[in-house]
From TrEMBL, chains A, B:
Annotated SUPFAM superfamilies: HAD-like
Protein name: 5'-3'-deoxyribonucleotidase
Family annotation (InterPro entries): 5'(3')-deoxyribonucleotidase, HAD-like_sf, HAD_sf
Domain of life per record: Bacteria
Family that this chain belongs to: Belongs to the 5'(3')-deoxyribonucleotidase family.
Amino acid sequence: MDGVIADHLNKHLTLYNRDYEDQLTFADLQGKKLREMAKCGIAVQKYYQDPTFFRDLVVMEGSQSVVKQLQENYEIFIATAAMEFPLSFQAKYEWLTEHFDSIPKSNIVFCGDKGILHADYLIDDNSYNFKNFKGKGILFTSPHNVYETEYARVNNWQEVAAMFLG
Amino acid sequence: MDGVIADHLNKHLTLYNRDYEDQLTFADLQGKKLREMAKCGIAVQKYYQDPTFFRDLVVMEGSQSVVKQLQENYEIFIATAAMEFPLSFQAKYEWLTEHFDSIPKSNIVFCGDKGILHADYLIDDNSYNFKNFKGKGILFTSPHNVYETEYARVNNWQEVAAMFLG
């Protein structure tokens, strides 16, 4: 969800720069998590504890239309590691039902360890989610993962479409 | 979760009998869902829409100690079909962290279709959850399922212990 269909990083960076009077850009985050570059370190995760943080995220470009196309040939589930931020449940659910109403509620999964998912493919921006996953992991490009080479990679939703519908 | 480690039925029946001046018992529910026997029919599901309904459910007898014993030999996940009742997320999460603190948050799953779970076994009181599940389904006895014969059955947590640790 985050970093694949929901753009959490733009909002996170904007809030951080505002509150800490910093000017970090996506270029500064190549190969780094925001918490590694932020003046406040791990405390930058506090924004995720705000129950409203995930409610108004911008939809990743092309994700809605490509998901709908994929649904014609594949069974699509949306999984999100929500257990790290339990206050986010309601906002994430509302965001999904607003922006991805083609996904039935039965196909939404809030989990922790994504190794519990029984699926052929997992598109994710965090490669650690592939560790216990039994299907094929596909890395969705995000600044923090640009130097990783171990997994198949898609840079955007057009490339997802090309991979699965091409 | 519900009907396996959390006793939702006792509370549901008590609230229904109070509000509809009825005297339904577990004996009346043999082979039936409450919504089939309730004067109000499917409207009896309204109790699940109360965000607090799932917060104070009684823990099923023996479940805590057997889950802990199982964890010595198995990786245990708790999965619940929470997507049907999105207002229940917070209460279910709080209940789990209160009563099953041996389960790491990473092993909690809120889902819909349990076919998404990658596990060897699924202990559940609703046999429809086994339909898309690729592992072995084990039916946990509840009044509504007593006449079902298609799946392996456990009547209580002592029988779960005997099956997996015996």
